[in-house]
Amino acid sequence: MGRKLDLSGLSNDEAEHVLRVVQRDMQLRKKEEERLSEMKQELEEEGSRCLLLSKQHKFNEHCCIRCCSPFTFLLNPKRPCLDCHYNVCKSCRTYSQSERGYICAACQKSR
Fold it and tell me: Which of 10, 18, 72, 92 could form a disulfide with 88 if both were Cys (CB 3.0 to 4.6 A apart)?
């Protein structure tokens, strides 16, 4: 950023086109920054919520730390996340073939 463009060798139409492209790029960068900022805030809120729930006596042994649904032996078994090590239900996790384990949705986002 901070570099200046020398548009003196371009025609007016070409210079305007370059200017529009640069302005569109700046808008897209700003939009992406906002999206990443919102995602970061979401993940921080999720982390603090999980920290509170994990302090409850054996909460994560019986319920998913992400959605609070109860674990059942066959229908909704608990599995530990490879990153955060919390137990998560089948709807809040994905299987990683390369790591041979489960990753929760929040850790997947943060990756």
Answer: 92
